[in-house]
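WARN retry 2 of 3 for item q-0093 after timeout on previous attempt; input resubmitted unchanged.
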Amino acid sequence: MNPRLQALQAYPFEKLKALLADTNPPDCKPIPLSIGEPRHPAPSFVLDALAGNLDKLSNYPTTKGIAELREAISAWACQRFALPALSVETQLLPVNGTREALFAFAQTVVAASPDALVCTPNPFYQIYEGAALLAGAQPHFLACDVRNGFIPDFDAVPADIWQRCQLLFICTPGNPSGAVMDIASLQKLIALADQYDFVIASDECYSELYFNEDAPPPGLLQACADMGRNDYRRCVVFHSLSKRSNLPGLRSGFVAGDANILKDFLLYRTYHGCAMPVQHQLASAAAWSDEHHVKANRDLYREKFAKVLATLDGCLEVSQPDASFYLWAKTPIADTDFARQLFDQQHVTVLAGSYLSREVDGINPGANYVRMALVAELDDCLEAARRIKAFCQSLEA
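OK item q-0093 returned
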């Protein structure tokens, strides 16, 4: 067996399942806010495109993807991020969702060695850590705490860490905080990547879930383009239809950026055997070509956040994030105790923040926080907020 597998930690939801194993919640409707699985209806026109192309099951898909999908992706990305161009031949690839692609990407770009580092935010999406370990590198965690707006303090990273870094994962908007990196911060990272010769992988799967229609979150390729850097050297972004279009089961996204890196990534993927089915590609092309359903989706989240936050006001230290569908709430007791007792007393599931983080120098930046995914329908989210409020009030009694 691959000895690197022994370095992998249990996934956060396995830890949560163990935490809640011997609880006895009341006989009321369970409301899960723990998993970021979109539950708004999938766009009907995408389902029609999928159903209308089931005859494509008789065709082997190509790893590079069909031209129609690549053209739809390029058109969307250029419009959304004000890019002058994005080559459908060399600068983008369809992928089976960002999770698969983020993991595979590390296997492509990391040269395994005892000194190799993959830098990642902390808290983080656990795929970053697993991808680093199985690629033969060590993860180096960059704390995201309230003092720096839940964005890593990149200025505090020592030069010797940057010198060993081969790959930097960033997540903007962030999971779990929803914090958004601005253009200046992204360009500072690009300069660091040039100076120390590492690759930036920007996980932007929450980029279309924002609250201010006049200020969408910027992206890494946008930061490149603003610098006149249209080859997107050392920069790669990851996008998905899961959150944008409520299509987590379609397993559809794309990777875009540096053509030289994507050439090797395509080679890896050709052997990896992960081509997207043709009918999924055609449905995806339809989704990327429409913005009306995306705006309607944001409207639903905007209403939920406003009403849930109004209900929670005064009982929890929590505020509206810059973007995403998560609330990152500070807890009055240990986060694991909060999650366990809330489930036991109110049948509401939230994720302990310490399960999304790693302790470094005695500090776990996710401790005393919980992540709440406002993915359920409005009525369920409001009922969950009322139960959370009642639970918090019981702690004060």
